[in-house]
Amino acid sequence: MRKGGPMGRLARMWNRENAVPKLIAFVLAVLLWFVAGAGTTDTPSSVLAPSAKVIHGVAVQVLYDEGVVVAVGGQPQVDLTLRGTRLDLMSPLLGGIRAFVDARGLGAGVYELPVQLENVPSGIIYDPVYATVRLERAASRQIQVTVRTTGTPKSGFAVGTMSSSPAQVTVSGPAEEVNRVAAVVAQVSVDGAVQPVKGRVPVAAVDSQGHSITGLRIEPDSVDLAVAVDAQSKVVPVTVELRNAPAGDLAVESWSVQPSKVTVTGPPDVLSRIDQVTGMVDVSGTTGDRTFTVHLRVPDGVRAIQPETIQVAVHVVPGKTTKAARVPVRVVGLEAGAQATVNPPEVSVTISGSTSHIAAMHASDLTATVDVTGQGPGTYRLPVAVKAPPWATLADVPSVQVTITAPSPAQSAGGGSG
C-alpha cells in the first residue's frame, strides 16, 4: 500500500525540520487555548505581554554568624516587585520564593542589606530592595533553674525539697539582654496538694524585679520538676500528769513512758507553739504496780499524733507521806496599770507522795496563781491554781479574795496585760 497523502507529508516535514521549536510552539498554543477557554478575555498577545506584580510583607531571613552576633528587632519584611510576562506571573511557583539577606562577617551595628531571592521561577526578574538589619553582640550564660511554687498545700502539709532536671539551662541572645537575666524560673502550682507534684513546665528568664525578659533563646525551654509535699511534722516529748492517789497508804514512786516521744502533724503555725504532748493517768484506787494505756490529748489545730496511745508503767510503794506547805499567790492576767491585792497572800496546801519524794521536795517545786483575766475593778473570790510535781497529790487548795483597783487614764491608754 502506498504511504502518503497530506497527513503523511505533514508527518515527514515534522520529523525533518526544526522539530523541537515546533513542539514548543504547539504546547504554547495549547496553553493559550486553555487560558482563553477558562472564560478570560485575554488574548495570546496580552498574556505574553510584560507585566509586574507586587508581593507585600515578604519575610526576610537574616543569615549571621551565630555565637558572635544576633539579629534583633524581629524578622524584617519587605515588598517585592516581580517582573515578567503575565503568564509567568501567574505561576504557582512564585509561592516558593525565599528572601534573605547575608549579614555573615558583620559585627554589631545597623545595616541596609540587599535582599536576595531563591527559587525564583525562570523568566522572572525582581526590582532591587533593601532590608534594615540590626545586629548586637551575642552572649551565652548557664543559669541555675529557680523552682517557684504558687498556692499552698492542704492544711497540715508543707512544701519540701524542690528540684529540676536539668538543674541548669543555657540562655543566649543579645549580650545586653542576657546580662539582665537575674533568674530562670520554673513555676508550678501546689495548691491543695497532699502528695509530691511532678511534671514538665516551661522556663522563663526574669530580671531583678521579676519582670519577664523576652527575645532570648533558652535551651532547653522546659524542665522536669519534682516538688515534695509532705505532712508537716514535729517530734515532741510526752509528759504525764497523775490524777488522784493510790489506795490506802500507797504512793507513786516512779513511772516510765513508752514511747517517750511522739510525732505531731499539723500546720506550721500550730506546731511552732507545741513543745510537748500530755497524757493523763488516773491512779485512784491502785493497789500495786500497774501499766496504763493512755490516749494522748490532741492539742488544738493538730491533725494527728503518732502514735495516738502510750504505755505508762506506774511503780507504787507503801509509805505515803502528807505535808502542809504555804505557797505565795501570784496574780496573772491583770490589766496594765491596775493594782491587785490578794487575801490571804499565801495559801496552805496539803501535798501527799512517797516518803522519798516528800523528803526531796523544795519550796520552789510549788507555785500558786490566780487568774483575773477580763476582770475589772472590784473584789472577787477566785480559785487558786497550784502547780506541783507530777508525783504529788494535792488536797485542801483554797480560794482567795482578790481586790482590783482601776488603772489611771494614762496607764489605761498604754494597754497591755500582766
Largest sheet properties? 9 strands, mixed
**CATH class assignment of the largest domain:** Mainly Beta
The total of helices stands at: 8
Low-confidence stretches: 1-11, 33-40
Helix content: 10-25%
- What would CATH call the homologous superfamily of the largest domain? YbbR-like domain
Distance between the termini: 139 Å
In the CATH hierarchy, the third-tier topology of the largest domain is known as RNA Polymerase Alpha Subunit, Chain A, domain 2
Overall SS class: mainly beta
CATH architectural type of the largest domain:
Beta Complex
- Total E-strand runs: 29
Protein name: YbbR-like domain-containing protein
Organism: Kyrpidia spormannii
InterPro entries: c-di-AMP_regulator, YbbR
Task: Report on the architecture of this protein.
This is YbbR-like domain-containing protein. This protein is mainly beta and 418 residues long. The protein folds into four domains: 46-135, RNA Polymerase Alpha Subunit, Chain A, domain 2, CATH 2.170.120.30; 138-231, RNA Polymerase Alpha Subunit, Chain A, domain 2 (Beta Complex), CATH 2.170.120; 233-318, RNA Polymerase Alpha Subunit, Chain A, domain 2, CATH 2.170.120.40; 326-414, RNA Polymerase Alpha Subunit, Chain A, domain 2, CATH 2.170.120. It has helices at residues 5-16, 19-37, 44-47, 86-89, 175-180, 268-271, 355-360, 409-414, and strands at residues 50-63, 69-72, 77-85, 98-102, 109-114, 116-118, 125-126, 130-150, 157-165, 168-174, 183-189, 197-206, 217-219, 222-231, 233-243, 250-258, 261-265, 277-282, 290-295, 304-306, 309-318, 320-332, 339-343, 346-354, 367-371, 378-383, 385-387, 393-395, 399-405. Strands 2, 5, 8, 9, 10, 11, 12, 13 and 14 form a nine-stranded mixed sheet that branches. It has a five-stranded mixed sheet with strand order 6-4-1-3-7. Strands 27-25-22-24-28 form a five-stranded mixed sheet. Strand 11 (183-189) and strand 12 (197-206) form a beta hairpin. The radius of gyration is 48 Å and the shape is rod-shaped.
